[in-house]
Write a structure and sequence with these properties.
CATH topology of the largest domain in chain A: ABC transporter involved in vitamin B12 uptake, BtuC
Number of strands of chain B: 22
Radius of gyration of chain A: 23 Å
Shape of chain A: globular
Low-confidence stretches of chain A: none
CATH class of the largest domain in chain B: Alpha Beta
Structural class of chain B: alpha/beta
Distance between the termini of chain A: 45 Å
Number of helices of chain B: 18
Helix content of chain B: 25-40%
Shape of chain B: globular
Radius of gyration of chain B: 25 Å
Structural class of chain A: mainly alpha
Order of helices and strands of chain A: HEEHHEHHHHHEHEHHHHHHH
CATH architecture of the largest domain in chain B: 3-Layer(aba) Sandwich
CATH topology of the largest domain in chain B: Rossmann fold
Number of helices of chain A: 16
Low-confidence stretches of chain B: 1-15, 519-525
Number of domains of chain A: 2
Helix content of chain A: 55-70%
Largest sheet of chain B: 6 strands, mixed
Largest interface: A-B, 26 and 37 residues
Strand order of the largest sheet of chain A: 2-1-3
Strand content of chain A: under 5%
Strand content of chain B: 15-25%
Mean pLDDT of chain A: 88
Oligomer: heterodimer
């Protein structure tokens, strides 16, 4: 009998090869294109004040070489335990090399970039958390986009009528729950294909909010579409911490809600009766049923809770971002949230990381287009989807959905 | 049969022995009467075997007792009191536990989490925070009390089936059940694990717990049961004592005399038909399933592959038939390589294939019997060509095969899903044996098949052997392999541990199935 040798191209080596390749691209392409001028990463919002400075070309080549080195370490196949860390560092070094090239001769306001990344990420975090709740219990939620739209619309309408941000936020949650309830009933009670239901609900939300916007809001914007904006609260003391102070402690309620919900949901899933049952129902509903867990009941609860959270995420668009509702204003953010959920492997912290990464890409795309970069910003806007395809293809770690995700439970 | 004095010694307050009575239980699914006025009484401390063929209605009956199904008629009495079980919760509350044939364990959970699920120890009031320490202690306590070793921190997906079954039993016992239903618990166990399980059942009964043991294996029934209720086509046909002979029990179960032995003459092996060497195959997750297998099947002999399910048998067969790519090694049919040939071409070069999962891979359930009989030949004369089917030829063929293979159906135009499991399997066998064969592969050929059809299918397989075909039989039922095979290859963790004669004592084959090779090896060749 022959002992088969372990194949050479184990996952770590494949990843290492990828990192090495992008590192070489960074070193040679970014390095040669970069101007030999100073790149300034300023801590304030403009070109003045304290800054981290580096020669753009030197930086691009330096970080490119670091990327290559990290890739080579992974290629040796001897650092398997540190795989995730090396991968993250490799991607970070690549991004820094890219930035050095782009920022050479200019400046990038660091705080503003981080602040903006978080703001872009905000609805994504909430949407992905809504997805975590549903999908960990076995209900696929493709309707996050629709929940965003209903939330945004509800917040604008009720917020204006009641001239209250908080009334707006609550109606946003109600809006999310309306879509969630339809998803739950159709998927859990009537066993309709969950992806199809999700898409239909998105179209429904787009149609009804679009109709009401044109008939109600557009002719009477002052009366129906001028919600108050969510106030930013400064926490005394903490908001003066450099860099993270203004990002985290001079923010609105939604930011804190999202950042608190991440660890809360993480711990609850892991350590509470609700969490254990949710995971059981998402992995093996029959087993849960035979020990007396109410499978469908729990799925209803989770999908509706998800609706509350996604609805709150929708409020971001009208109460935080633009200050008024507009037709199809979410523009696919729900789908990026779905991507963040998958890229984050159905975990709250994973979803947070993915959402921040996507938010950073979006903010960078915006900055680069303003700064007149030769790289079309569409490329950076594609990043969430490309990253998700790579994640789903199993290139980054093992991606495993809950076993019963999307499978309706029917008693035999 | 009551556990007598031992009751109080193990008792911890609630241990009042439970007496169960089922009266006139009737359950219908459409026209089918699955249970027809069944009466059973289970006394405290009794091991009560429920014996019947696949499809006789045993599991349906127990699912009603466990609250998964509700009876259309009849009563369930616990300690003389009529009960209605709307869900398993009610059954558990009444002191009834069940170990299902397919384990009800969440693979990605630890043992302790699985046992806690549904009856969690929590603190923190409405927050419901899991009390893992108490949970763990409960598991260890129950495990020690009943002598069922389990590791509370192990992940269930990493445990062998025997250990998973112990987890299931501990799970029921932590819920303080007084009556434990075991549904076909030995189907996935090696002979040694089966003996251990029977010992556990006996000691549980001695502590006053009642056991309902569902099975179709006569040997086990005789070894353990205090009383035996035989169910046939949804009715109780007899209540027998364990002194009843196996032949009598089989006759009660099937309704006529059956021969339990496969009758066959000595094999006359000819040339090597299938030669496999150094075969390496991965499973769906990319984990090595077949790990360097060498096998030879000769014309006119049956090579049986014995082994507990999940040791690579499925992947081995799928590789031979071209349904699964191989990593390394060679497979030759009469010196022609099968690797990369494609399933269709392999089948038409004289390979017959009875897949292990009939309803998934063996038949198209919505298609008629006649259509299922030509699934392999529909695109060639006389049944059809690239453009059309010859309906008359298909129907004629069906008429002939239905008679020849004793397929019980009112019409060959009925959907194959309307047939019993045994008759569906006969459709598969009839189709695969209608081509001229050099090699026949039968994977779990009688799983979910009634005894009458088992006899018929076994005879067909021997008939095929005697006509000079090389036959490869894969089965997790050791009795079946021993009965059919001329040589037995024992598979364990993707390897063939030994090739032995069917005359080797069952215990030694059992040890090999458990991966223990210290037993003296005998080469049948």
């Amino acid at each position: 009998m022959v002992d088969a040798p372990e194949p050479f191209w184990i996952r770590e080596r494949r990843l290492g090869a990828g990192i090495t390749v992008i590192g070489l691209i960074a070193t040679f392409v970014f390095g040669s294109l970069a101007e030999s001028k100073t790149a300034r990463f300023t801590l304030s919002a403009d070109a003045s004040g304290a800054a981290i400075s580096i020669n753009g070309q030197v930086g691009a080549i330096l970080f490119g070489l670091i990327t290559v080195a990290l890739g080579v370490v992974m290629l040796t196949g001897r650092a398997r335990r540190w795989q995730t860390l090396l991968l993250s560092l490799g991607i970070l070094a690549f991004v820094l090399s890219f930035l050095c090239w782009q920022v050479a001769g200019k400046f990038l306001p660091l705080v503003d970039t981080l602040d903006g990344s978080l703001e872009y990420a905000l609805p994504l975090i909430l949407g992905a958390l809504a997805g975590v709740l549903g999908e960990r219990s076995g209900v696929v939620n493709v309707a996050i986009e629709g929940q965003f739209l209903m939330g945004a619309f509800g917040a604008a309408l009720v917020g204006t009528l009641a001239t209250s941000v908080w009334a707006g936020l609550i109606s946003a949650m109600v809006g999310g729950v309306i879509i969630a309830a339809m998803l739950a009933v159709l998927a859990i009670r009537f066993l309709v294909d969950q992806v199809v239901v999700g898409i239909v609900l998105n179209l429904f939300a787009l149609g009804i909010t679009g109709f009401l916007y044109e008939r109600l809001m557009q002719p009477n914007a002052l009366k129906y579409n001028q919600p108050p904006k969510m106030p930013e609260w400064k926490i005394p003391g903490l908001s003066h911490i450099p860099v993270i102070g203004p990002v985290l402690f001079d923010a609105n309620l939604l930011v804190w809600l999202a950042l608190i919900l991440v660890p809360v949901i993480h711990l609850a899933l892991k350590n509470t009766r609700w969490g254990l049952r949710t995971r059981a129902v998402g992995e093996h509903p029959t087993a849960a049923d035979t020990v007396g867990v109410r499978v469908r009941g729990l799925r209803y609860v989770n999908v509706l809770l998800g609706g509350v959270i996604a609805g709150a995420g929708g409020a971001y668009f009208t109460l935080v971002s633009t200050g008024a509702f507009n037709k199809n204003m979410t523009a696919g953010a729900g789908f990026i949230a779905l991507a963040a959920l998958i890229f984050g492997r159905w975990t709250p912290f994973g979803a947070l990381g993915a959402a921040l990464f996507f938010g950073f890409a979006q903010k960078l795309a915006y900055y680069l287009s303003v700064a007149g970069s030769p790289v079309p910003n569409q490329f950076l806007n594609m990043l969430p989807y490309i990253a998700t395809i790579i994640a789903v293809a199993g290139l980054v770690g093992r991606v495993r959905a809950p076993a019963a995700d999307g499978v309706p439970y029917v008693k035999s | 049969m009551v556990g007598g004095g031992q009751l109080s010694s193990v008792a911890s307050g609630q241990e009042i022995p439970l007496r169960l009575e089922l009266r006139g239980i009737t359950k219908r699914f459409g026209d089918l009467v699955a249970n027809d006025h069944i009466d059973i009484t289970v006394e405290p401390g009794e091991v009560h075997a429920l014996l019947g063929e696949n499809g006789a209605g045993k599991s349906t009956l127990m699912n009603q007792l466990y609250g998964l199904l509700q009876p259309d008629e009849g009563e369930i009495l616990v300690d003389g009191e009529a009960k209605v079980f709307r869900s398993p919760r009610d059954a558990i509350a009444a002191g009834i536990g069940m170990v299902h044939q397919h384990f009800m364990l969440v693979p990605v959970f630890t043992v302790a989490e699985n046992i806690a699920l549904g009856a969690e120890d929590v603190r923190g009031g409405p927050l419901g925070i899991l009390d893992r320490r108490r949970n763990r202690r409960d598991v260890l306590e129950t495990s020690q009390k009943y002598g069922l070793p389990v590791d509370p921190d192990a992940l269930v997906e990493n445990l062998p089936v025997g250990a998973q079954q112990r987890v299931e039993i501990v799970k029921a016992l932590t819920r303080d059940v007084d009556l434990l239903i075991l549904d076909e618990p030995t189907a996935v166990l090696t002979p040694q694990e089966t003996d251990e399980l029977l010992a556990v059942m006996r000691s549980l009964a001695e502590t006053g717990k009642s056991i309902v043991f569902i099975t179709h294996k006569l040997r086990e029934v005789k070894a353990i049961a205090d009383r035996i209720t035989v169910i046939r086509r949804g009715r109780t046909v007899a209540t027998a004592s364990p002194d009843t002979s196996e032949d009598e029990l089989a006759a009660l179960m099937v309704g006529r005399d059956v021969s339990l032995e496969v009758s066959k003459g000595p094999a006359e092996p000819g040339r090597d038909v299938l030669k496999i060497s150094g075969l390496i195959v991965d499973d769906d997750r990319g984990v090595r399933a077949v790990d360097g297998v060498d096998l030879t099947v000769r014309a006119g002999e049956v090579l049986g592959v014995a082994g507990v399910q999940g040791n690579g048998q499925t992947e081995l067969v799928e590789a031979i038939i071209g349904l699964r790519g191989i990593r390394a090694g060679s497979m030759e049919l009469d010196n022609e390589s099968l690797a990369g040939m494609g399933t269709k071409k392999i089948l038409h070069s004289g390979v017959g294939y009875i897949p292990e999962d009939r309803s998934h891979d063996g038949v198209v359930k919505e298609f008629s019997v006649a259509e299922n009989l030509v699934l392999d030949m529909y695109d060639r004369p006389p049944f059809g060509n690239a453009f059309r089917l010859n309906a008359k030829a298909v129907a004629d063929n069906a008429g002939e095969r239905v008679g020849q293979f004793d397929i019980r159906t009112t019409s060959a135009e009925h959907a194959v899903s309307t047939l019993s499991g045994g008759n569906q399997q006969k459709v598969v066998v009839a189709r695969e044996m209608s081509r001229p064969l050099r090699l026949m592969i039968a994977s779990q050929p009688t799983r979910g098949v009634d005894v009458g059809s088992i006899e018929f299918i076994h005879n067909q397989i021997i008939h095929e052997r005697d006509s000079g075909t090389a036959v490869l039989v894969v089965s997790s039922e050791l009795d079946e392999v021993v009965g059919l095979a001329d040589r037995i290859a024992v598979m364990y963790r993707g390897r063939i541990l030994a090739t032995v004669s069917p005359d080797m004592p069952r215990e030694e084959i059992g040890l090999l199935m458990a991966g223990i090779t210290s037993a003296p090896q005998e080469d049948a060749e």
